UniProtKB/TrEMBL annotation:
Positions of post-translational 4-aspartylphosphate modification: 56
Top-level taxon of the source organism: Bacteria
Keyword Nucleotide-binding in record: no
Organism of origin: Paracoccus aurantiacus
Protein name as annotated: Protein-glutamate methylesterase/protein-glutamine glutaminase
PTM annotation, UniProt: Phosphorylated by CheA. Phosphorylation of the N-terminal regulatory domain activates the methylesterase activity.
CDD domains noted in UniProt: CheB_Rec, REC_CheB-like
Domain CheB-type methylesterase: 142-341
Lineage: Bacteria, Pseudomonadati, Pseudomonadota, Alphaproteobacteria, Rhodobacterales
Length: 349
């Protein structure tokens, strides 16, 4: 395998050194150069021809976000944004994802240099295989009067996503009505970014979108996103389903993990519609297979519409996913699978 060539762009010499040390510990990656500002970066890109960029969001002069927009217009390539998890940093990083960046990673906190950027090599490898989908417009939210009538069948939607998932989730959320089925989401992302992501989506789209809290009830019209950090998101299986946040080790290198969410729903699999969206690796694939065997409806995003066709591909190959669905059709599929009809009504427990 030819090493993935990476250019590091950051105005901080300390950050450049930490990123370089982490990337050079992985034999699949070659750091071909560094740049301390976007002027240097433009020259380095032309000379060094990197496969992937790591780009600081907040830099003096031209910001990383402005540089990303310019580059995606002139010379698109995979970019991983590096940002603080502050309110300002998270806002800029999420805007970068909507403008074509493949993924984002939080800067290490003071005294955290040992584990700094531990996830970066995997993100770089994923980015090197990414299908660039920048420039795809997010569908506008339909006016309330124009929303299709939806009667809930009491089925619950579970969604797992990773690299490219922010844009994919936004596409789905934009097409969900105000009274959508209860939905739980596990998206691989630092906790600071997840909080800002939930706020951003809630302000834009019809359902109530928020971070999941322990013991929060599952309700129609509400989409709850795993908060990450120290916790996995699970679903209770009693008479009335609730969110459960569990503090335990990472699974497949992730916390929150999609497999943990899916496996928690096996006792009520006949009431579950599970979805795996774009992302690298295999998190969620085994959990989806277990759900399907127990009677759940299981869908995976197709290759053409995925930024990285890793998690959904694994679920398709192991038999966990019964059908591949394009991103633009996914919301309609979820609504059809959770809508009350006479035929489905007879099958409800």
């Amino acid at each position: 395998m030819t090493p993935v060539r990476v250019l590091i762009i950051d105005d901080s010499a300390t950050m450049r050194r930490l990123i370089q040390m982490r990337l050079r510990s992985d034999s699949r990656i070659e750091v071909v150069g560094e740049a301390s500002n976007t002027f240097e970066a433009k020259a380095a890109i032309d000379i060094l021809a990197p496969d992937v960029l790591t780009l600081d969001v907040e830099m003096p002069g031209q910001s990383g976000l402005d540089f990303l927009v310019e580059m995606m217009r002139k010379k698109p390539m995979p970019v991983i944004m590096i940002s603080s998890e502050t309110q300002r940093g998270s806002t800029a990083a999420l805007e970068a994802l909507s403008r074509g960046a493949v993924d984002c990673l939080g800067k290490p906190r003071v005294g955290d240099s040992v584990s700094a950027f531990a996830d970066l090599p995997g993100l770089v490898i994923a980015a090197s295989t990414a299908r660039l989908l920048s420039g795809r417009p997010v569908p506008a939210v339909p006016a309330p009067a124009a929303m299709r009538r939806f009667e809930w069948s009491r089925k619950i939607v579970l969604i797992g996503a990773s690299t490219g998932g922010v844009d994919a989730l936004e596409t789905i959320f934009a097409r969900m009505p105000e009274n959508c089925p209860p939905t739980l989401v596990t998206q691989h992302m630092p906790s600071g970014f997840l909080a800002k992501f939930a706020q951003r989506m809630n302000a834009r789209y019809a359902p109530e979108i928020r971070l999941a809290e322990n013991n929060a009830p599952l309700q129609q019209g509400t989409i709850q996103i795993a908060p990450g950090g120290d916790f996995h998101l699970c679903i209770s299986t009693g008479l009335r389903q609730r969110c459960l946040l569990t503090a335990s080790e990472k699974v497949h290198g992730h916390r929150p993990s999609v497999d943990v969410l899916f496996d928690s729903a096996r006792p009520i699999a006949d009431r579950i519609v599970a979805v795996l969206l774009t992302g690298m690796g295999q998190d969620g694939a085994q959990g989806m297979l277990n759900l399907r065997r127990a009677g759940a409806i299981c869908l995976a995003q197709d290759e053409e519409s995925s930024v990285v066709w890793g998690m959904p591909r694994t679920a398709w190959q192991n038999g966990g996913a019964e059908r591949l669905v394009s991103l633009n059709a996914m919301a309609a599929e979820l609504l059809a699978a959770t809508e009350l009809t006479m035929r489905r009504d007879r099958a409800l427990p």
